[in-house]
Amino acid sequence: MNDLLESKEPLLKVKNLSKSFSVEKNFFGRTTKSLRAVHDINFEIYPGECLSLVGESGCGKSTTARLILNLVKADQGEVLFENEELLSMPARKLRQKREDFQMVFQNPFSSLDPRFTIFDSIAEPLIVHKKGTKESIEKRVFELLELVDLAKSFATKYPHECSGGQNQRVSIARALALNPKLVVCDEAVSALDVSVQANVLHLLKKLQKDLQISFLFIAHDLAVVKMISDRVAVMYLGEIVEISSTQNIFSNPKHPYTKALIASAPVADPKKRNREKIFLTGEIPKPTEIPSGCTFHTRCPVKIDSCLSQVPKLKNVCSSEKKTDSHLVGCLLY
Ligand SMILES: Nc1ncnc2c1ncn2[C@@H]1O[C@H](COP(=O)(O)OP(=O)(O)OP(=O)(O)O)[C@@H](O)[C@H]1O
Ligand SMILES: [Mg+2]
Question: I want to staple 215 with a disulfide (CB 3.0 to 4.6 A). Which of 50, 157, 233, 308 is the partner?
């Protein structure tokens, strides 16, 4: 993976992406209160790489995914996919481009049509995008079933006849039907039992390796993130506060928020329970009332005076020039 990052151009570049939602309007339809969901975020995803977005509920992970896929209109910023700007792309071209990026959602029961057989669900994107004849589509559906480790006999079943894990495999097969280059997984394993979760994660990892697919993986469970990601971006109140390799984030976290997130995750090994711990105090601020300066200062146990007024910028805390070593942190302590 490291070699990949060093030698290749990013598949996806997200530049200064921002989105606010209007939550209150006056009589004249003018916004009187807005909610900052995503603020000035920047990151890249390389071919064959899995980048995870983590952070508490409401920090803007799903909005980021929707902005990238152009399902929600951004207020500001650019999304470059293979160096082509998606946000300003004409609708027809964007529809074609959509073949290259697909999404897998949290709940397979609501993302699969209950009236469709598994065969029909997987075949649908191929039919909509006019990919081949009846025979070639049929062949491809069985290939995809095999790819996600489901027996041919599943083709005639309906979602209610399958388990959560099996349905999520079907959603993955459907997402892979058009040979995408990027798959966005929004809490794709969160609704599954732990053992099923591990199986689906292994499948995703295998697909990433075998098919060289890139993943944007959104999850709140750090154990899951640690298992699947090459790099991790930590979000807080709509901003990325730290981004680095999975190894750096878990073994050498720098931002007090990342440290707190890791400290609050359950640890199986009792010997590791006594490591330095930072605990979050207070409630997460409302996204309609963003704190001044560093947005984390209201909960930060190590804040200094300037955190209340100065906005930290992401800084590389690693002296090496290598992309793989890059460790960006947005904290005034660095
Ligand atoms: N269409 C919308 N209109 C108004 N507010 C919205 C809309 N979509 C999202 N938000 C708000 O934007 C913020 C970010 O939401 P988002 O769904 O991106 O968070 P998330 O990190 O995915 O959370 P979760 O972990 O709970 O899924 C939240 O405060 C949410 O209420
Ligand atoms: Mg979400």
Answer: 50
Number of domains in the chain: 1
pTM of the complete model beyond 0.90: yes
CA angle 229, 235, 239 (to 5 degrees): 135
Query: Residue with the nearest Cα to atom 7 of ligand 1?
Result: 21
User: Residue 234: nearest ligand to its CA?
Assistant: 1
Residue with tokens 């290259």: 100
pLDDT band of 79, cuts 50, 70, 90: very high
In this structure, which residue's CA is closest to atom 12 in ligand 1?
37
CA distance 161 to 165: 12
pLDDT band at 29 (very low <50, low <70, confident <90, very high): confident
Q: Residue 295: inside a domain, yes or no?
A: yes
Is the shortest distance between the CB of 59 and ligand 1 below 6 Å?
A: yes
Residue 334 belongs to a domain: no
The chain-wide mean pLDDT, for the chain, equals 90
Radius of gyration of the chain (CA): 21
Q: Which of 23, 24, 25, 35 to mutate to test the pocket of ligand 1 (most atoms within 8 A of CB)?
A: 35
Question: What Cα–Cα distance (Å) separates residue 48 from each residue in 5, 176, 240?
Answer: 9, 14, 22
Average confidence (pLDDT) over 56-67: 94
Beta carbons of 166 and 134 less than 8 angstroms apart: no
Give residue 97's domain range: 2-329
> Ligand 1: distance of its center to the CA of 138 in Å?
38
Is 239 a member of any domain? Answer: yes
Tell me how far the alpha carbon of residue 64 lies from the centroid of ligand 1, in angstroms: 9
- Nearest atom (ligand 1) to Cα of 66: 18
